[in-house]
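[Protein data]
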Amino acid sequence: MIFPLIGVIVYLIVRGGSMHHRSIWQFQPRAFGASSDFPPTAAGSPPSRADQLEKLASLRDRDVITAEEFQQEKARILA
């Protein structure tokens, strides 16, 4: 019972600082060579344009992407 707790504490100490960066990378796979900008939904179907725009707006509002990047991706989605 103590070993899992120690394992979690060690993991958080060693990798905890980069958790934020990994969560951002999840929403920006295009920066790391992936072909899709958004992961597929749970059902396996691609997300709708509205879903993609909503996620983009969320990223822009949280200052993860710039307004220029938002406009470029928005134009690509709507094209």
Summary: The chain has four helices and no strands. Residues 25 and 36 are 13 Å apart (CA to CA).
